[in-house]
Structures are given as structure tokens and as C-alpha cells.
């Protein structure tokens, strides 16, 4: 009986897709990676917004709620997540990014 070995090698059916989950550092919402925006602490120690998710460094994620960005810009959530002091310059960049990309009254419900 050699049928069993053959069956083990070939799995039938679609492989379960692994979707990386991320957590918003402010509201702790969990969701798939692509709905979040990565914030990175670069090797130089600066904090930058990394929409492509490709920059080197320690990353933290924010969801797309304006309120979370506002809180990240004014509170300690990002400092804690990235273990760095977020500069005033970086905080302004966060506010600006939120202004450009998100609506103040939008609770993250897109489409
Ligand atoms: Zn959030």
C-alpha cells in the first residue's frame, strides 16, 4: 500500500492565505496590514510616515481614523510603540498626513 505517501505529498484545495494582522497603536484595532499606515523609526532615530511599508527601522501602525492620528500626534502612544521621543516636527507631519488623507468626521468607515 503506497497510496498514503502519495496523498501526503499533494494537498488538495486552496492553501489558506496568511494575512498579516496589524494593531493600531492608539485604538488597538486589529486588521489586515494594508488598511494601516506604517510609522517607522529610522536607523537615524527620526520618526517618519512610511505609506509604502518598505523603510528600514522599527515600525508601528496606525489605522485610518483621523482621531487616532490626532491622538498619536499629541499623545505618547507612538513614543511608546517606537521607543523614541517623537519630535514636534514628526508630530506636525502626522497631523498634516491626517489632514490630507483622512476626514475629521470619518470614523474609518471607507466605501
Ligand atoms: Zn486606531
UniProtKB/TrEMBL annotation:
It comes from the Bacteria. Residues 22-95 form the YlxR domain. Pfam families: YlxR (PF04296). InterPro entries: YlxR, YlxR-like_sf, YlxR_dom. This is YlxR domain-containing protein. It comes from Sphaerobacter thermophilus (strain ATCC 49802 / DSM 20745 / KCCM 41009 / NCIMB 13125 / S 6022). The lineage of its organism: Bacteria, Pseudomonadati, Thermomicrobiota, Thermomicrobia, Sphaerobacterales.
